[in-house]
C-alpha cells in the first residue's frame, strides 16, 4: 500500500435533521477525486484506507456512513437505508465541489458503489469493486444459514448459533434482530458480540486474532451488528435482484470497472462476482488465488493498487 498520509481537510456534513457525517480529504488537492465506500453496513473508514491510492495523483475522499464510525448519532437506525446513503454520497460530492469521481468500494461498499453508479452514472469515472455483495436472499442464506460458510468454519458457526434457541435457527438474521433489540442489555451485548465475531472470524483465509478481538469492544460490536442486521433483515431496502437487473446494469456498462474477489471469500462468495462479470462483459474480473474476504490480504491489496493506478489518469 502507499505510505501513510494525513488528511488536509476534515469536517462534518449535516445530511438530515438527525444525521451528520464525518468526512476527510487527503492526497493531491488537484488530483483525480476518488470516494472510498467502507464495508459493513456499520463499519467505518480507517487511516490505512487512504493508502489504496497514489497520493500524488488522487484527491482521496473518505467518510463514515450514517450511524457508523465518527458519524452521529452512533448506531442510529432512523432514516438509515441504502437509499439514504446513496443520497449522502451525492450530497458529499456537491459539498466538495466534485464534478465526477472514481468510486471504490469493498463488500457492502461494493453494494453502495454499484447502486450509486446506477443512480448517478454521469458522476462516476470508474468503479473498483472488491468482494461483490448484491444483498440477495441467496447470498445472505449462504453466510447466515447452515449449509454455506458453516461447512468451512464449523467452529465459528457453532459460536454464532449458540446464542439462538434451536427452534429459532431457521432464520438467523431475524432471530438476531430480536435479540439486538431486546430490552435486556446483557442479551443485546451478547448478541452483538457473537454476530460481529462470526464475521471477523471468517473474513480472512488465515484468521486474524486482532480482527476477532475487535468483536469484544461493546461500542464497535453494537454499532456494527445492529446496523448490519437492520439492513439485512430488510433486504437492503431494495427489490430482490435489483443490482443485477439488466435495466440497472445497462446504466453502468460504459463505466470502466475492475472487480476483485478472494477465491476463498466465504462472506461474499466468488460466484456473485462471476455473475456480475458475466452481466458486465467489459469489466475486468480478478480472483485472488490466496485470499478470503478481507481487503487487507496481500494478494488482494496488490490487485486493488494495480486497479487504482490504472484508473488514476482517467
UniProtKB/TrEMBL annotation:
<keyword id="KW-0378">Hydrolase</keyword>
<comment type="similarity">
    <text>Belongs to the peptidase S33 family.</text>
</comment>
<feature type="active site">
    <location>
        <position position="265"/>
    </location>
</feature>
<dbReference type="InterPro" id="IPR005944">
    <property type="entry name" value="Pro_iminopeptidase"/>
</dbReference>
<keyword id="KW-0963">Cytoplasm</keyword>
<feature type="active site" description="Proton donor">
    <location>
        <position position="293"/>
    </location>
</feature>
<dbReference type="InterPro" id="IPR000073">
    <property type="entry name" value="AB_hydrolase_1"/>
</dbReference>
<dbReference type="Pfam" id="PF00561">
    <property type="entry name" value="Abhydrolase_1"/>
</dbReference>
<keyword id="KW-0645">Protease</keyword>
<feature type="active site" description="Nucleophile">
    <location>
        <position position="107"/>
    </location>
</feature>
<dbReference type="GO" id="GO:0006508">
    <property type="term" value="P:proteolysis"/>
</dbReference>
<protein>
    <recommendedName>
        <fullName>Proline iminopeptidase</fullName>
        <ecNumber>3.4.11.5</ecNumber>
    </recommendedName>
</protein>
<feature type="domain" description="AB hydrolase-1">
    <location>
        <begin position="33"/>
        <end position="296"/>
    </location>
</feature>
<dbReference type="InterPro" id="IPR002410">
    <property type="entry name" value="Peptidase_S33"/>
</dbReference>
<dbReference type="InterPro" id="IPR029058">
    <property type="entry name" value="AB_hydrolase_fold"/>
</dbReference>
<keyword id="KW-0031">Aminopeptidase</keyword>
<dbReference type="GO" id="GO:0004177">
    <property type="term" value="F:aminopeptidase activity"/>
</dbReference>
<dbReference type="GO" id="GO:0005737">
    <property type="term" value="C:cytoplasm"/>
</dbReference>
Amino acid at each position: 500500500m502507499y505510505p501513510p498520509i494525513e488528511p488536509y481537510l476534515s469536517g462534518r456534513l449535516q445530511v438530515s435533521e438527525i444525521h451528520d457525517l464525518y468526512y476527510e480529504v487527503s492526497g493531491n488537492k488537484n488530483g483525480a477525486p476518488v470516494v472510498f465506500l467502507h464495508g459493513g453496513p456499520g463499519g467505518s473508514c480507517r487511516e490505512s484506507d487512504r493508502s489504496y491510492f497514489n497520493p500524488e495523483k488522487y484527491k482521496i475522499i473518505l467518510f463514515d456512513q450514517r450511524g457508523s464510525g465518527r458519524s452521529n448519532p452512533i448506531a442510529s437506525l432512523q432514516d438509515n437505508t441504502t437509499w439514504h446513503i446513496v443520497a449522502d454520497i451525492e450530497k458529499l460530492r456537491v459539498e466538495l465541489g466534485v464534478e465526477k469521481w472514481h468510486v471504490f468500494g469493498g463488500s457492502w461498499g461494493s453494494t453502495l458503489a454499484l447502486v450509486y453508479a446506477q443512480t448517478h452514472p454521469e458522476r462516476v469515472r470508474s468503479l473498483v469493486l472488491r468482494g461483490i455483495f448484491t444483498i440477495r436472499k441467496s447470498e445472505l442464506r449462504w453466510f447466515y444459514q447452515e449449509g454455506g460458510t458453516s461447512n468451512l468454519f464449523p467452529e465459528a458457526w457453532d459460536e454464532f448459533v449458540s446464542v439462538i434457541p434451536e427452534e429459532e435457527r431457521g432464520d438467523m438474521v431475524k432471530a438476531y434482530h430480536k435479540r439486538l433489540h431486546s430490552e435486556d442489555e446483557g442479551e443485546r451485548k451478547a448478541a452483538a458480540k457473537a454476530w460481529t465475531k462470526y464475521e471477523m472470524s471468517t473474513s480472512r483465509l488465515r484468521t486474524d486474532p486482532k480482527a476477532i478481538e475487535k468483536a469484544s469492544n461493546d461500542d464497535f460490536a453494537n454499532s456494527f451488528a445492529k446496523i448490519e442486521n437492520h439492513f439485512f433483515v430488510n433486504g437492503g431496502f431494495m427489490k430482490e435482484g435489483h443490482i443485477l437487473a439488466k435495466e440497472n446494469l445497462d446504466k453502468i456498462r460504459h463505466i470502466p470497472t475492475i472487480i476483485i474477489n478472494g477465491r476463498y471469500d466465504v462472506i461474499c462468495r466468488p460466484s456473485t462476482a462471476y455473475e456480475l462479470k458475466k452481466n458486465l462483459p467489459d469489466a475486468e474480473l480478478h480472483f485472488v488465488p490466496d485470499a478470503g474476504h478481507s481487503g487487507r490480504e496481500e494478494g488482494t491489496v496488490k490487485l486493488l493498487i494495480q486497479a487504482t493506478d490504472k484508473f488514476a489518469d482517467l
